[in-house]
Amino acid sequence: MRIIVCIKQVPDPQASSSGTKVDPEAMRVIVPQGTPPVMSPYDENALEAAIRIKDAHGARVTVISAGRNLAKPVLRKSLASGADELVLLEDAAFEKLDSYATAHLLVAAIREIGEYDLILCGRQAADTDAGQVGSGIAEILKIPCITAASKVELSDGKVLVERVVSDGFEVIEAPMPALVTASSEIGDLRYPKLKDLQAAQKMPITVRGAQALGIDAAGLKRVNLVRLAEPPRRKTECRIIGGETPEEAGANLALKVKEAKLL
Amino acid sequence: MAEYKGVMTYCEIAEGSLPSISREVAGFGRKLADDLGEELCAVLVGSDVGNLAQDAIGLGADTVYVVDDPLLKEYQTDAYLSVMEKVVRKMMPRILILGQTSVGRDLAPMLAFRLDTTATLDCVGLAIDPGTKLLLQTKPVFGGNAQATFTSDFCPQIVTVRDKLMPPPEPDASKQGEVITLDAGLDPAAIRASLLKRVTENEGGVRLEDASIIVSGGRGIGSAEGFDQLQELAALLKGAVGASRPACDNRWLAPNRQVGITGKIVNPDLYIAIALSGSIQHLSGCAQSKSIIAINKDPEAPIFNYADFGVVGDWKKVLPAFRDKLKELLPG
Predict the structure, then answer these.
(1) Is-contact B314 B297, C-beta < 8 A?
(2) What is the tens place of the pLDDT at every residue in A178-193?
(3) Which residue in A has a C-alpha nearest to residue B107's C-alpha?
(4) Cα separation of B77 and A148, whole Å?
(5) What structural domains and CATH numbers belong to chain B?
(6) Residues on chain A touching B309 (C-beta within 8 angstroms)
(7) Apex CA B36: angle with CA B33 and CA B41, to 5°?
(8) What is the pLDDT of residues B74-107, one digit of tens each?
(9) N or C: which end of chain A has fewer CB atoms below 10 A?
(10) Any idea where the domains of chain A sit in the sequence?
């Protein structure tokens, strides 16, 4: 059993959720200074799903990450959490790729690995929010794809997935090899032990560049960014309702809501 | 690229009719088709769905393609993907629009890769560039902290649009159009991933998308039991209960109750945010509510920048008093 997990490195979305600015001239998002790089949260959910399968059935888990200037200590956390192998696709040309180019790049690496039963990705990355790379990899490899999984299990040589939909969930079964994209409902990535974190910093990793992979990733880009802007903000002036006690403030709020005819 | 022409909408069907998102998608499609001076067509995929073709015409479609097959009774990725691949290859639309729904976000990217073109999901703005005639595809990125506009030189230009961006067009029952039935030509063996069952988790209450009042809780609620108090207020106001992502990830509430960029986009008359700090990801889902009330113990919580009225205080003390007073004030 071989599981491949694709993980993107992003600026920590928790740390950057306020204070992120846009430079429209340079068409760049500027995250607050000191925002650390992290594994994209849905990708962490995907890794957690992979490690749970490894715990239950035994599996070799390979993590692939692509980009420029990857923060190796951050990605090595995947090894500390239970992955067996880390493959970094690192090249100056691997910056700011679109979903099409990224999917083709990851497929080049997956084909080098050769054998796999299950590929897991996050449902969307915390920076681009594109939500396409997983589906793209599956289509290029011509394997079934199940998106937005809240649960991933193996059963009789097949993958059994619960998929989040608007009014509940679906239970879907697919033959392997298959690709599954993970949603947050899977649960957080386990916290690695300190000794595993230390050991992971010393484990060998594989680094592959564009030339080694024989891929012109930047040349595969198909989408052009033409504008980047601040989002429109709701303009309100919040009236803070007070009171002698929290209870009184609550009652005053009810009076105000009634007076403003909000109900 | 010259051979690609016109705008196509994928008309999602829910419980035998066209849900609001399909009508909104029709509105976007009509506008873009008019701006291009080209035709709008709609695609209906399902089982026993031909009766909806006239509805799609009334919403602006010049032509409706109906693909009807018992195998298409429920959405299954592989079957619908195969059908849509066939329809698009045959009709070669310049633009294909779907709704940003469970179906749209699943189908659109796979279809794009299968057709070797591109897709942009969760668009909040669509327009035709008057110079290049390309589709300007605007979507939130960085969890809603920025909005990016993309173009693609590859056709069809596939997009999904977020719901509730604009009111759907009024149906025009007198509008004429052509209905063309296409054969699904499905090979059951092409359905690799199979749907074993669908489980509905709608505790009999008001659907979040339809509610005119939403009582929503965040991480600060702290437990499933805490949400019982929100349920109580929602019941009093005949509204629905929602939650932020952390609350749903903790299973204090079902995942389909999540409001935000990865959950539902809502626009009720009143949104009551309790113990919910208001991450940009969450606000993306509720900022278009007519009025927002916030109860939070942190005066610096971002939710107060979006709220009309707020109370700074412990929700456990504020909420019961708020509810009891409302009970007193509300008629019968």
Answers:
(1) yes
(2) 999 999 999 999 999 9
(3) A135
(4) 12
(5) 7-190 (3.40.50.620), 208-329 (3.40.50.1220)
(6) 238-241, 253, 256-257, 260, 262
(7) 25
(8) 999 999 999 999 999 999 999 999 999 999 999 9
(9) N
(10) 2-220, 233-263
